[in-house]
Predict the structure of Choline kinase.
Amino acid sequence: MTNKEDIIRQLPCWDGAVDPEPLGGGITNHNYTVKDSRGKYVVRFGEDIPVHHVMRFNELAASQAAYQAGVSPEVVFAENGIMVLRFIEGTCFDESMVRDPENLKKIIPLIRQAHREIPKYLRGPSLVFWVFHVIRDYAATLKKRQSRMVNEIPWLLDSSESLEKAVGQVDLVFGHNDLLAANFIDDGDRVWLFDWDYAGFNSPLFDLGGLVSNSELDKSSEKWVLESYFERPVTDELLYRYEAMKCASLLRETMWSMVSEIHSDIDFDYQKYTEENLDKFRVQLQAFQKSEILK
């Protein structure tokens, strides 16, 4: 069976012979770096993952539109579950870097730019990413496969139903929907956003809630994020809906990991990731429920 390095070497996009090197860090895809005489690139391998609502036609279209919108690196080649992007020399963020106020001043305009500008360049069919549908679908998968976490599903679904009611009606933007710290890279002049596996039309509250919860921003920074994104003071009504969506983003990340425990072949400790995110979700949900009582 041909290995991934051999497949990469045979791609028709290179100028001369190449020697692929594995690129660590991915928890959905297998990634490599490649140099040829014209530059350096990232090669992403990824089949469709229907269980995670990841469809590669959608990722490719989003990545191409994100480049045209000035948000992401250029896609230079794509075929059969392989995408080659121009490599960005820079520093991938970690959670502490996202929390840095100076970095947040770059991140929030970038997110707003993605939300507003990508639809102008998006071509072909596109997915909608509605987190509460994803959660229900994950629950069905976990039950079918008799996950070790199957006894947790009833209360998680009940929580999700309450959160969906609290979120209420939403505005639609084109969301990234996976704003982990590692999906931002700073080249010294600007910040880029990449990895559009889960891209789709969604509420901006989901990306904002995911950014805050994934990198554990404090309340002061969280308020700044919301006011900076919406460019106005945040009302109590918007804050309430945002807090519900933030809970939902943590629940989705938790259940994503539960499903990945069963389905993924990537070398990553998904069980530990599940437990970490489930703890975060419990804390956030309790805080949200307390705020409901105080209202």
Summary: The chain has a mean pLDDT of 94.
